Amino acid sequence: MCQPMSSNLQYVRYASKKASATPRNRIGRTKRKHRGIKAHDGTFVHKGDILATQFGLRFYPGENVVMDDKWTLKAAYDGIVVISTETLNPYPDSPLYLPVQKGAVLQKKFFHIIPTPLHGKFKLVSEV
């Protein structure tokens, strides 16, 4: 008679590796942030391009330049970058206000954007 074949295979489940935590005090150096000037004097930039990344205020925003919450300077318009060194004139609530009022002269780098001129080729809607 035919009997169904029984399987002699047994399934064995092995212990998997237990998850381990990362060490708290890693030995070695962390990666640098590569902060600094990203667009140099005389280069053409588009709106929203990063001009400089910084920790604190090393560089100040000038004409047509905006600064975000992490002190990154970005172009507000398309144009050419101009970097200048100017005498700082801080607001009264700034910590640099008192030293300047006492006679200290602070020279800081400012980023400016000279926007590209618009072309003068416009048509009236009634002529189109």
UniProtKB/TrEMBL annotation:
Keyword Ribosomal protein: yes
Keywords recorded for this protein, A-Z: Ribonucleoprotein, Ribosomal protein
GO cellular component: mitochondrial large ribosomal subunit
Family according to the record: Belongs to the bacterial ribosomal protein bL27 family.
Pfam families tied to this protein: Ribosomal_L27
Name the UniProt record assigns to this protein: 39S ribosomal protein L27 mitochondrial
Keyword match Glycoprotein: no
An MF annotation (GO) of this entry: structural constituent of ribosome
InterPro entries tied to this protein: Ribosomal_bL27
GO biological process: translation
